[in-house]
Amino acid sequence: MASAPSKLYADDVSLLVVLLDTNPFFWSSSPLPFSKFISHVLAFLNTTLRLHQLNQVVVIATGYNCCDYIYDSSSATNQSSGTGMMPAFCSNLLEKLDKFVTRDEQLEKGGQEGGIASSLLSGSLSMALCYIQRIFRSGPLHPHPRILCLHGSPDGPEQYVAIMNAIFSAQRSMVPIDSCYIGAQNSAFLQQASYITGGVYLKPQILDGLFQYLSTVYATDLHSRGSLQLPKSVGVDFRASCFCHKRTIDMGYICSVCLSIFCMHHKKCSTCGSVFGQAQSDVASTSNKRKTPDT
Amino acid sequence: MASGQVVKKAIYKTSIKDPGSPGILKMSGDRLTFRPKDPNPAAELDVNFETIKGYKNTKEGSGKPAWLNLTNDQGRSYIFQFDGGYADMHICRDFVGKAIAKSGETTKAAPAKPDVIITPDEQINREELELRIKLLREDSELQKLHKQLVIGGVLTEAEFWATRKKLLERESSKKQKQRMGFKSAMISDIKPATDGRTNKVTFSLTPEIILQIFAEKPAVHQAFLSFVPSKMTEKDFWTKYFKAEYLHSTKNAIAAAAEAAEDEELAIFLKHDDILAKEARQKIRRVDPTVNMEADQGDDYLHLPDHGIFRDDGKEVSEPQYELYRRTLAHDLNRHAAVVLEGKSVEVELEDTKTVAEALARSKQAELANADSDANADQEQLQRVSRMTEIEDLQAPRDPPLALLCIKDPRDYFDSQQVNAVKILGEDAMGTAKRKSAANPRDAFGSLRKCISEVKSVGLRDPVVSSKDAFQVFNALTRDISRTKYDVGRNSQDSALDMLPNIAKEQLLHHWASIQELLRHFWSSYPITTSYLYAKVTRLKDAMSQIYTQLEEIKKSVPANHKQQVSVLVRQMHQALDSAFQHYDADQQKRSAKSSQRPNGYV
Questions:
Q1: Which residues on chain B are in Cβ contact (under 8 Å) with A22?
Q2: Structure ipTM
Q3: What is the dihedral of CA B579, B580, B581, B586, to 10 degrees?
Q4: How far is A128 from chain B (nearest CA, A)?
Q5: Which of A156, B120, B183, B442 shows the smallest number of beta carbons within 10 Å?
Q6: What is the per-residue pLDDT across B64-113, written as a single tens digit (0 to 9) for each?
């Protein structure tokens, strides 16, 4: 990064921040084994790096208990050809990933119950945005950043606020969030993230061809994207999570002051402390604002 | 007439603006033919009445020429303008009406038959039966559905119609036709037709006008009842009446008095109406005393140009001895207004003057009896009338309260339905497998690390993607992209359905209709409480699985360029059916589980 100002950044240079879902609970039940998945991803990263010599790739692991940078192409110093089996950056990345998983496991307190738990998407999104902000401030010329979420874990409604904040921050800094979701159901969070930031949301149907999806849809730089016809999502699940119980709801109560969302009527807004009048609440509860239980 | 044939001179037009080609219209038996005068093959017609679905005609007195507009089942219309005017048109219209009814009966005889075979537990009156047959005849889609489901034995007649109560109700409510009131034009405005050469004037009277005259002038009514036919013929009566009217219209009270002196019958028409006067006195007594009836100077706009009716009181002489024979406009107007507002109370076919007069007399008597029995009744009625000013015809049909089902993204809906169904199906089946793997974090992390080290040791796989997979992905992506592009560029009005070949489209629509019908019955029979419902659900399920396979066949049979659209359409139907099947299976499992548990628990 220190050498950045000397580089001549054209409009087709990208900074790709990949958020890698390493939730062990998801991968142990996924139809696509992690080993296959990572080899697809590594090939894709290599492709991206080779598309332009100034292209930059940052990989952030989205773990179950923590998140961390596991690869940054700008700081990778030795560009040696690596071992015979794979490029050097791949073995570096795998090494880091291994360490990360070990650390993630150590942080595991073992308190989770039922179903597949979600991974810390909000954390990795924030880290990605921080990194991008740093790039923005490095000088007038910088690669065009974009975020690619390779995600499989289900949405964690408890992260709703954090994720939405990250999404809006990305929207403000014009960073598209692409998402490739390999889980079973569509992810409402990622759908919204891509929709709001103008990225591409894709749920590959043929998981064995993941590399093909990645290289066809996500490899092009933002400048070239304007002339491409990329898949559009037909529908977006816009449902929000309530702030009180972190449940995904279809209908709920909105604080008239700070727009916080609640699944049931409260006397006082837990976010901004506004006190709701009793008379109004009576009217509200009988008329238009009905609560529907989440499905 | 219906059995014979009708031959009329007419002009045939293909559209309203078409000048048309004159020729001979011939209607006989089950066909309608038109031979143009000039040999013009385009205008030649030979139409079977079976294809004619309806007819419209211009109204007499609307100022339009006599047109009869026949529409066939393809929505094409044949317009005939009759040289012989309305008389010819009416004859042809009646003929067409009967012919259509007849052909309708013969073609619909097959589906109508099972209507008669009704399970003994339901009693349907004839009226409803007719209503059903009519509905079936008018709605070919409904008829198809009926044929498939009811005659196919999937649903019983009662079940089929139970979900269409609203349709039947609407149909039956449509039957009560709007009652026609009196025209607001005054009878005095009926101008006699003069031929211009002789002094003879001709009044044309319809039963409708007569009824109005009777209603407005009780004295005339009274006279009619007492004189006709004992003292004079009906014709003489009306001649006298119009003579009197004519005298009135000349505004010559003196002449009227002279005539009245000569002819006592005529005098009845010329003098003030006693009955009316009595009624008026009664009414005055009931007027709210607080009402200020004095007219304002500003109310008098009769003297303004272009106002008023063609009778002018101003010129009339007012000599006390002729007062009796003078009628004021105010009298006439008031009386007319009262009658129009009262509305027509006589419900008879307006055919014969005699019956009209008698019917009116009867209704009057009934009214009188009511009025006598309770003086307050009128007052109450007035109040009620003022309260019930809402006019039935202008109200929207009262629908049962229901909320519109609004699904923003049907895919999501079906997805979630399936998820729910899977959830219900048993968390034990799928849930345990997942939980087992997820329950132990150590294992999970271990397997993940193993995967990483596996990659590390083995390295990247040489072909990252097999060319077969890559090709598949390319195909899927292009299809996806072309579809969204296709959807975005078009408005929602013209659907992909219109692009399909007609047969496939019709089949799809029909299947969709029957699926909806079946699903409605299917879901409404849950929870299964009786063995009858159980049998019904089983029947429905079988029918649905039949359709399921038929859909598959359609999907295979359509040409390749439409495959994508059809599969999208079919997928929705399949999903809807799938969720029903899942529910059925889940319910079945629950039932079998229950029945197997019972003996263990109780024995």
A1: 448
A2: 0.77
A3: 90
A4: 23
A5: B120
A6: 677 777 777 766 777 777 777 777 777 777 777 777 666 655 544 444 33
